[in-house]
Each structure stands twice: as C-alpha cells, then as structure tokens.
Amino acid sequence: MIHPSEQLASVRRFEAAGFRAWPAAAVHYDGTWVIRLTAGHPAKRLNSVNPLDRGDVASITERVARAGRRFESYGRPLTFRVSPLAGPELSAWFDGEGWSRFDDSLVMSMPLVEAQVDEAIDQIPLKDIGRFVSASLEVQGADASLRAGLSEIIGAIQPQTGLFAMERGNEPLASLICVHDGDLAGLFEIATRAGERRQGHGRKLVLSALKWARLRGARQAWLQVEAANEPALALYRSLGFTEVYRYHYRRPPGA
C-alpha cells in the first residue's frame, strides 16, 4: 500500500510536469495557489487556479475574490483545478458556497519498459508547428480561431517536444503531442478524426510517440483523460496505463 506522503509526492511530480509541458501565458502566485491564465486559448488547464498545498487554506474568501478579478480581466470564468494537493478544507468551502463540480479526470501512467513499442512504426515528429496545428485543429474539429493560441503554447514548451500526426494523403487522421521531460514522456492533445475512430489510428500513433520518447531516455509515460471518455480510457488501459490520481474543476454559481 502506498503511503499518503508518497502518493502526494507522485502527484506533485506529475503536476509540475504538466505545468512545464502545457505552459500558460501568464502565471501568478497567491501563496501556493498557482493562477494560470492564457488569453489565446480557452483550455481549462491553461485558465485555472491550481492549489498545491493542502495546508494553505487561510483567507479563502479574500483570495478567491482576488483570483476572480484576474480571471475577469482576461474574460475567463473563474475556475479552480482541484487535485489531491488541494485538500478537503478547500473542497468543503466550495461545497458550502454552492460551486459546481465538473470534468472529473484521471492522470494515468505506465513504465515505458512495459510499453508495447517494439513493433511500433518509427515515425519522425513534424518539425513544422504550423502544419501540426492545422492537423490537430482539423482532427479535433476545433475552431480555426485557436490556431494562434495553440501555436504559441507549443512554441513555449521548454522540454523536448514531438509533434505527431497520422495522415492519409493530405487528410490528417490522428494527432498528439509528446513532451519528453527527463525520464517522463507526457502525451497531450490526443485525438482521432471523427469518422476514423475505432480503426487503430490512435493506438498506432501513441505507440510511435512512446517509442520515440523511450529511445531518447524516457522511462515513464503519462497522460490526462476525462473520466467520462470511456473509449479513450479503454485504449489507455489496454496499452498498460493505470490510474495515479484524479482531479476535477470547480466554478462558482452562475459561472
């Protein structure tokens, strides 16, 4: 059985890796609350308050109000991302104030020594950020207005980054980002084009990215996935990923 202190150390490690792999445009600190804001992209991970110390619960009402003013200046709804590092007192405060809870998600990991990559296709990551962003937006069915913001985020990633896309001619079928950070390989923006799902494209692309990362020294793969995304969970579990911890989001009434 994992001791609670060991569990929290693991959570801290993946949370820090996530911040490095998916950098917000602006980062502010209120004690150990990390306030991440990004004008060019609406993703909740890039626009949320992330409490990182279970004991840092002083003056919650005042600090939430300060955070709210920052979010208002960016035109973003005040959002907290609640991991095991936030602790029960803050969650109790949210409950008492009637905040909604949504988008429960899992952080999953897998030792790369166990990854089924020996038969994976050797794929060279794309060097052209613009080409990858076009493929990613098309695969996800996302609005073209996100192009500049996603390009800026990818360009700001400091660890070595692999941009992977599977294509049929000029048609993108699947895409993902693999961030190699020390012995960790984080997978982000994993998506398969509607109409092309359940044909193995995602599995092949994930394995190619993990092979790329393992050859460069990564020892552990990890990713984040919404708990309601059963097809994705089935794929990741079949590859050998297991749950490390969960997080969710909170917003005030009416937000």
From TrEMBL:
The organism's place on the tree of life at top rank: Bacteria
Coiled coil regions in record: none
InterPro entries membership: Acyl_CoA_acyltransferase (IPR016181), GNAT_dom (IPR000182), Rv0428c-like_C (IPR056935), YpeA/RimI_acetyltransf (IPR050680)
Domain annotation N-acetyltransferase: ranges: 119-255
Any GO CC annotation of this UniProt entry: ribosome
PANTHER family linked to this entry: ACETYLTRANSFERASE, ACETYLTRANSFERASE YPEA
Protein name: Ribosomal protein S18 acetylase RimI-like enzyme
